Amino acid sequence: MTIKFKVHKEAGDCNARLATLTTPHGTVETPIFMPVGTQATVKTMAPYELEEIGAQIILSNTYHLYLRPGHDLIREAGGLHEFMQWNKPILTDSGGFQVFSLGDLRKITDDGVEFRSHIDGSKHFFSPEKATRVQMALGSDIAMAFDQCPPYPCERQEVARAVERTTRWAKRCLEAHSHEYQVLFGIVQGGVYEDLRRTSAEQLLEMDFPGYAIGGLSVGEPKPMMYEVLDYTTPLLPRDKPRYLMGVGTPDALLEGVARGVDMFDCVLPTRIARNGTVMTSRGKLVVRNAAYARDFEPMDPNCNCYACRNFSRAYIRHLIKSNEVLGIRLTTIHNLYFLLYLMAKVRQAIREDRFMEFKKEFLSNYEE
Amino acid sequence: MTIKFKVHKEAGDCNARLATLTTPHGTVETPIFMPVGTQATVKTMAPYELEEIGAQIILSNTYHLYLRPGHDLIREAGGLHEFMQWNKPILTDSGGFQVFSLGDLRKITDDGVEFRSHIDGSKHFFSPEKATRVQMALGSDIAMAFDQCPPYPCERQEVARAVERTTRWAKRCLEAHSHEYQVLFGIVQGGVYEDLRRTSAEQLLEMDFPGYAIGGLSVGEPKPMMYEVLDYTTPLLPRDKPRYLMGVGTPDALLEGVARGVDMFDCVLPTRIARNGTVMTSRGKLVVRNAAYARDFEPMDPNCNCYACRNFSRAYIRHLIKSNEVLGIRLTTIHNLYFLLYLMAKVRQAIREDRFMEFKKEFLSNYEE
Question: Is the pTM of this model over 0.90?
Answer without folding.
Answer: yes
